[in-house]
Amino acid sequence: xxxxxxxxxxxxKPEYNETLxxxxxxxxxxxxxxxxxxxxxxxxxxxxxxxxxxxxxxxxYCLSEMLQMQFGRLGLSQAKVVxxxxxxxxxxxxxxxxxxxxHIEGAIFIKDSDCYFTCEPRPQNGVAIYPLEELSxxxxxxxxxxxxxxxxxxxxxxxxxxxxxxxxxxxxxxxxSDEFCRYYERLxxxxxxxxxxxxxxxxxxxxxxxxxRVKEYKDWGTMHLxxxxxxxxxx
Amino acid sequence: MDIEVKGHSGCDISxxxxxxxxxVYKSTYDPKYVARLLKQASKQQEASTVEYQHIxxxxxxxxxxxxxRATIKMQYIYSKNFVEYFEQSGFExxxxxxxAIEYFVEKExxxxxxxxxxxxxxxxxxxxxxxxxxxKPEMADDARVxxxxxxxxxxxxxxxxxxxxxxxxxxDLTFSNILFNGNNYFLIDFLDSxxxxxxxxxxxxxxxxxxxxxxxxxxxxxxxxxxxxxxxxIDSEVDTYFATRYEWYRRFYKPMQLMxxxxxxxxxxxxxxxxxxxxxISQLLNEI
Lengths: 235, 288
Known about the structure:
The structure holds two protein chains of two kinds. Chain A is an alpha/beta fold. Chain A is built from seven helices and eleven strands. In chain A, the strands form three sheets. A seven-stranded mixed beta sheet of chain A has the order 3-2-1-4-9-6-10, with helices on both faces. A two-stranded antiparallel sheet of chain A has the order 5-11. In chain A, α4 packs across α5 and α5 (177-187) crosses α6 (195-204). Chain B has two domains: 2-75, 2-Layer Sandwich (Phosphorylase Kinase, domain 1), CATH 3.30.200.20; 82-287, Aminoglycoside 3'-phosphotransferase, Chain: A, domain 2 (Alpha-Beta Complex), CATH 3.90.1200.10. Helices cover 52% and strands 17% of the residues of chain B. Chain B has helices at 31-47, 82-88, 91-110, 119-134, 137-140, 143-158, 198-209, 213-216, 224-243, 247-264, 271-287; strands at residues 3-6, 12-18, 21-28, 55-56, 60-65, 70-75, 114-117, 162-165, 178-181, 184-187. In chain B, the strands form three sheets. Chain B has a five-stranded antiparallel beta sheet, with helices on one face. In chain B, α7 runs antiparallel to α9. Classes of the chains: A alpha/beta, B alpha+beta. Chain A binds chain B through residues 147, 155-156, 158-159, 161, 163, 187, 190-194, 197, 200-201, 203-206, and chain B through 87-92, 94-95, 223-226, 228-230, 233.
């Protein structure tokens, strides 16, 4: 079965018209931050890696060329840049358009570009989790929370409501890109959609999700948090 | 400390601590509502004698009344409302709730044999609703309302006698009348109905799950996408469950739902609610 990694980096904010989104900046080793975000995982298990960006950001900041150079430097031969012509309304839509545009089949692992963790990414339905109490600094409002039962099955996932000691660490795995697309098509008209909504709808239909327990989690949710992480590194 | 809140029915609700135990007092001071509240209390008392597994009914400890007022003293339930409950429920809790609803209605059905109900009962009820609706000037001047009422009159006149289960029902089984306490669901605000049929309870549940009614009245922010996902799931499971088992459900669910939505129309005051009702009534008429 094919297994692809998708990194959506197509968020559109007014300030990005004037300022490079910080996830396209370089870290202290000269690696682009959104690429650093996947380097805690064994990338060799993915047949393809897609970084999805916006045409207008690409045109303004030459992102494709920069990312291609980094892929070469880091030996990510299976990585590719996907350019969307127009902003999407949600992260699930960015994933959906990436799947359709690239005809992606098999399992997909979706990795947020604004955080880092290490894990073994297996091609089965799963959600990356990390315990809240292991973070020294946290904004609980910008996270989704994942309830897990005794046998380590996910029973609930919800945006911005602390229902569990585990929060979603910014990684999601769907064993079928087709199934992901079917759920997206069913739900996209309901309002502002999160990946957690798609997972919850699948849970209600008795699809199993396992927690993916990640390590070395770093939350770079904003430029400020990214800089704080660097400061901690050099302390 | 006593806590006073306003109930959905316009009754006064007080939460009172007596000898370290909390009680709910539900009272009406409207002489016209006294008989109705007493009927509801007796319905609740009767329901509380039946075991419904996860579905429960708060115990009534005392009923007092005279011609001007009536008060019911009942058990206080520590609980969440439906939005708080659904926002925090895992998939397995939603599954329990679906089975609890099916089980509850099945228990009601066991006490409600299928009977022939003359179509005049429904025509009379509809005429009463039509009269009440057209008494409101904003409705009487609304061409769309008049058109929907005309189409409904034609429909109720064409259905013949209804063969539906008759016996017991809650009467107003929307999610706003359920208190959620873990996997126990306490039913409140029983209502007397023009036909005591379990079909009415399915209709009321689906008023929420199919038409998202109770959230329209909810005042606080909530995750509307998640709630819709849950409602869609419950709606499809409940509909499939009864549609695959009962001819009376397949034949009379939609007309009963139409009557239910029409009954709300004369009481609707907010423009957005009136417009919403007109839209869903029209949709339903197109489906029948």
